[in-house]
Amino acid sequence: MSAIKPTARVILHACGALLALALPQTSRAAEPAANTIQPRQFAAVAHNSEDNQFLLFGGTYGTTRFSDTWLLGSSGWQLQHPSTHPEERVSAALAFDSIRDEYVLFGGRVKKSAAATCNAGAVPTGLATELFCKDTWVYKKNNWTRMSPATMPPRRELHAMAFDAASGQVVMFGGVGYTSSAPLGDTWVWNGSNWKQIVTAHKPPARFLHSMAYDPVNQKVVMFGGDGGVKILNDTWLWNGSDWLPAPKQITPPDFYTAAGMAYSSTLRKMVLFSGHTWNGARSGTPSYNSWTWDGNQWKKLPLTSFELITNFSKLTASQASKAILASGTPSMLWLSR
C-alpha cells in the first residue's frame, strides 16, 4: 500500500512510574465553559493531519477528572457535544485512522463505582479506588461509538498507539496492567472492528509512558523510550506491519525520556521527538525541552529555535493554533512550527 498522509498519536501524560501510581483521587467534572479548555495531564490526544486537527479526550486537572472531547484546529480549541462518549478517565490511548477517517480510543483508568461500564476488572494493585478499562471507542462524525470486538486486549493504562497507514491498522504496545505496576510488552493491532494480538519474532522490552508515531516517509511506526520498570529506556524500534525491528545503533541517541511527544513534521519532512521527562540514576525526572528528528536511520538533535513553545495550551490564540503540530501534557504544552 502506498503511504497515506502522515498521522501521529501525540501523548499527554504525566511522567514517571511513581507519579502514575499516585494520581490523586478525583470527583466528577462539570462541563467546562464553551471553548475554554483547562490544562491537564493524562489525557488522550491524537493528530489528524488530513484536517490539521488534534482530538483530545479526558484527563485530569487538580482534583477534577474529565470526559470532555475537544478539537484543536485553526480556530483554536472547540468543545464538542457528542450524544454519547466514554466515561471520564485518565491514561487512555488514542490514534487517528486516516483510512476510515475516525479516531480510536482504548483503555485507561476510571474511578471505581457501581456505574463503571468500561469492562473494568478487579481493583488494580495499589489503587483501591480505581479500575482499569479494556473498552474500545471510535470517534467519527462528531460522535463516539462504543465498539463490540470479539477479542479485546487486557486492561491497561499508559500504553501507546499509532495508526500504521502502510498496513491500515492501529498498532498498540505496552502499558501497565491492573495486576501489578510491572510494564507490559504485548503487541496488538486494530483493523477497524476487532483486535488481534501479534506474537512478534523480535520483542522490544516491556514499557509504559513511551512514544509512538507513524513515519510516512519510511512507512513504519517508530517507538521510542519509556519506562521499562527496572530502568528508563532510550531505545528505538520500528514496526513493519508484522514485527518490531531494532533501529541501527545510534551515533547520538536522544536522552532517556518518558512521555515525550512524537509526530511527523511536514515542515521538516521528518519525525520529531520532543519534550517529555529526562531521568537520572536516582529515577528523578525533570522536564526536557529538547527536540530530535528521525530520518529513518538516526536521531539528530534540533536547535531550540526550530519551534515555538506554548507552555499552557489553554491560553492558545487562534493564530498560534493554526501552527500547532505537536503536543505534550507534562505540563500541558504545544510546539508550533516557525
From TrEMBL:
Signal peptide range in chain numbering: 1-29
Domain of life, source organism: Bacteria
UniProt keyword list: Signal
InterPro entries linked: Gal_Oxase/kelch_b-propeller, Kelch-typ_b-propeller
Protein name according to UniProt: N-acetylneuraminic acid mutarotase
